[in-house]
Specification:
The structure holds two protein chains of two kinds. By secondary structure, chain A is α+β, with helices and mostly antiparallel strands. Chain A has helices at residues 5-12, 30-33, 40-56, 74-82, 105-108, 111-117, 132-136, 157-166, 173-176, and strands at 15-24, 70-71, 91-96, 121-126, 146-150, 184-193. Chain A has nine helices and six strands, in the order H-E-H-H-E-H-E-H-H-E-H-E-H-H-E. In chain A, helix 3 (40-56) packs antiparallel against helix 8 (157-166). Chain B has a domain at 29-125. Classes of the chains: A alpha+beta, B alpha+beta. Chains A and B meet through helix 1, strand 1, helix 4, helix 5 and helix 6 of A and strand 1, strand 2, helix 1, strand 3 and strand 4 of B.
């Protein structure tokens, strides 16, 4: 019987790495859902200059009296996106921090779909990693990393045009006319216990 | 007996786990996975065309086949199917989403993400407990594309 170091190690081993096949879906692949943003740093600077820096000076002022119409609460944003057939169609830009820690991925999983299915024009902009800190500053305090800015007379038109120019539109080809997608198989790397022979 | 040259090179990690290199292709049950994939897409298509009963039947078949054949779906896929009525959950169409906090003091630790299906069934995710939580499949390096 071999007494090499590798053979001894294998005797001691309790678990073995295994690869399990799992079915993914092209419909819920988050990488395809988030629209690409060109020059994320520039977009962040624009956001800082036009929205965030203004909001810093509005501590203690009621939200209704702000010179900008913004929404930071998740439920409020979902309600705005889901309001179908309202008196006014929603025209807004939604800034999201999908790559930052402290934001559960399950929370943001349906955000691109919600934007797409909303009746108005919603531009979804993903911010670079580390931008959640900026949105957490008072008085905005975007706990969930979502900031919806209404595009109305109060907001600078150049800012809206620049952000929309640098962001790709949302694309969900499977929602418009579905075409069969190939089976998206993946391997899940995990471990399984080694079965020892009973003596 | 398998020849030594044909065997994959194995090593043992510090925690006593035998490390095995990944196979070159996903093996076994490929037919079942293709059937599941087809059923999911069919269910999505019929949901979008407002044929809910048919869509739910397809999704129920999908659930039964995956359980009977022990073929797993990624959590991201399973989250889009209602466990009660087997509807495909599409926001603003067959599902609504909100953050709920039932605690008296509204401590952010008690935040729950609630995805409510049209049938009334709720999927509740306790997001407040650990906002950095990622399921095993969502953690980096655990999923390998084939």
């Amino acid at each position: 019987m071999s007494s090499s170091l590798r053979a001894i190690e294998k005797k001691v081993a309790l678990r073995k790495q295994v690869y399990k096949t799992v079915l993914g879906s092209p419909f819920v692949n988050e990488a395809h859902m988030w629209p690409r943003v060109q020059d994320q740093a520039v977009v962040l600077e624009l956001l800082k200059g036009t929205v965030l820096n203004k909001c810093v000076h509005l501590q203690g002022v009621e939200r209704g009296q702000w010179p900008l119409d913004v929404a930071t609460d998740y439920n409020e944003i979902v309600k705005l996106l889901g309001a179908a057939g309202g008196p006014q169609e929603l025209d807004a830009i939604l800034f999201v921090c999908p790559r930052d820690s402290g934001i559960p991925p399950v929370l943001l999983q349906q955000v691109p779909l919600m934007c797409y299915t909303s009746r108005g024009t919603v531009t979804l902009v993903q911010l670079p990693q580390g931008s959640h800190k900026l949105l957490l500053a008072e008085p905005l305090y975007c706990k969930e990393g979502l900031l919806l800015v209404h595009c109305n007379d109060k907001l600078d038109g150049k800012f809206v045009a620049a952000v929309r120019d640098k962001t790709d539109p949302l694309r969900f080809p499977w929602l418009d006319g579905i075409a069969y997608q190939r089976t998206d198989l993946k391997l899940l790397k995990t471990t399984a216990p080694l079965k020892r022979k009973q003596k | 007996m398998a020849s030594r040259a044909g065997m994959a090179k194995q090593s043992v990690a510090e925690d006593g786990t035998i490390l095995v290199p990944p196979p070159k292709a996903a093996t076994g049950n490929k037919d079942h996975y293709q059937r599941l994939n087809y059923l999911y897409q069919l269910s999505m298509f019929t949901t979008l065309n407002d044929k809910q009963p048919l869509a739910r039947t397809y999704a129920k078949n999908l659930d039964l086949v995956s359980k009977k054949t022990k073929c797993s779906l990624l959590p991201q896929v399973k989250r889009t199917i209602c466990k009660k009525c087997h509807s495909i959950l599409i926001p603003n169409k067959t599902a609504s989403t909100k953050i709920r906090n039932k605690a008296r003091r509204k401590d952010p630790k008690n935040d729950d993400l609630v995805i409510r299906c049209v049938c009334g069934e709720e999927k509740v995710f306790r997001i407040g407990l650990n906002r950095d939580y990622r399921s095993f499949a969502e953690r980096g390096g655990n999923i390998i594309d084939v």
